[in-house]
Amino acid sequence: MQLLLIFTGGTISMIQDPKTGSLHPASLENFRACVPELASSSVHIDTLPFNPLIDSSDVNPSHWIKMAQTVAEHYDQYDAFVVLHGTDTMAYSASALSFMLENLHKPVIFTGSQLPIGVLRSDARENVLTAIEIATALNQQGEPMVPEVAIYFEGRLFRANRTTKKNAEQFEAFDSYNYPSLAKAGVHITYREDLIRYATDDRPLVLHDKIDRNVAILKLFPGITAPLVDAILHTHGLRGVVLETFGSGNAPSYDWLYRRLRDAVDMGIIVVNKTQCNTGTVQMGQYEVSQNLMKAGVISGYDITTEALLTKMMILLGEYTDQQEIITKIQTSLCGELTINQ
Ligand code: ASP
């Protein structure tokens, strides 16, 4: 079994200077010294560090392209991939890769840690070692157990494009609110094979590495003003908007808001309704206050996460030009990100 450990940075890559207590990026040797089990593993592990290692708050689409291209370039050479990444934007990067790597047949498991690898109580060692075990696990047919982009963290494995960072303090940093965990790691690792996506054909991997950044998140709040909405919707070059609404997809019924959204849609901007609630789905038209959105041409994002919707739009807008094709794909589950038509 051959595994590629892609080391992008984040807290997991930090060690503490014993004298000053300050944190600095670990060298590969430091990292391996903190996880001596890596050397004695039956899995052959090669490591590919980003240079420089980055805090994930500095990650941008060019890094997603580098991560996805790294997987694609080494796809035939390795059986599995583990990506070490900061927790802050891990849900964005992992969601992006799930859309960039079409027809994936091998595991790409992201993990990180809340405490630096070089700190005694760190969660890093368990996260890395279990992520490696999951990435190299085989099912009864001898095929990869989890041929998906997923996030392993603190005992649970989540589908990448269903995951959100929820906690800056506890070790349980992530959750998947609208889809159950794909596996739980206790004394044994229990996989939910009924929930994991298995390819039904052997189509080759397709890399989508064109990304359009001309997207925005517009979060509604009581008291939102027209100039603020204008500032966002009039952004030069804007092509897609994640409209974060209330409850089951509701918005204030101000006429000015309706007119602005309708003008944006008429100008060719794709506006997608995403609820601010973590759990549940957008149900447009259920209340009168979402009917205006429908009339304006806003489309439903159903139960997708903001991280998945934003990255999916960036990738679709980068790849396709036909407006209707993009809208159809946004409303179709491409790799398990929506509960409808999976
Ligand atoms: N700021 C760090 C990062 O996301 C936090 C972490 O890794 O937990 O890179």
Summarize this entry quickly:
The protein has about 350 residues and is α/β, with parallel strands linked by helices.
List of distinct ligands in this structure: aspartic acid
Strand order of the largest sheet: 4-1-5-7-8-9-12-13
Largest sheet: 8 strands, mixed
Oligomer: single chain
| Span between termini | 31 Å
Number of helices: 10
Structural class: alpha/beta
Features:
342 residues, alpha/beta, four-stranded parallel sheet, 22% strand, binds aspartic acid
What report would you give on this structure?
The protein has 342 residues and is α/β, with parallel strands linked by helices. It has helices at residues 28-34, 37-40, 61-73, 90-100, 124-135, 226-233, 255-266, 288-296, 306-319, 323-330; strands spanning 2-9, 14-16, 23-25, 44-54, 80-84, 101-102, 108-111, 149-153, 156-159, 164-165, 174-175, 183-185, 189-191, 206-207, 215-219, 240-245, 270-275, 299-300. The radius of gyration is 21 Å and the shape is globular. Helix 6 (226-233) links the parallel strand 15 and strand 16. The mean pLDDT is 95. Aspartic acid binds next to loops.
What's the layout of helices and strands?
Elements: E1 2-9, E2 14-16, E3 23-25, H1 28-34, H2 37-40, E4 44-54, H3 61-73, E5 80-84, H4 90-100, E6 101-102, E7 108-111, H5 124-135, E8 149-153, E9 156-159, E10 164-165, E11 174-175, E12 183-185, E13 189-191, E14 206-207, E15 215-219, H6 226-233, E16 240-245, H7 255-266, E17 270-275, H8 288-296, E18 299-300, H9 306-319, H10 323-330
Parallel strand pairs: 1-4, 1-5, 5-7, 7-8, 15-16, 16-17, 17-18
Antiparallel strand pairs: 2-3, 6-14, 8-9, 9-12, 10-11, 12-13
The structure holds aspartic acid.
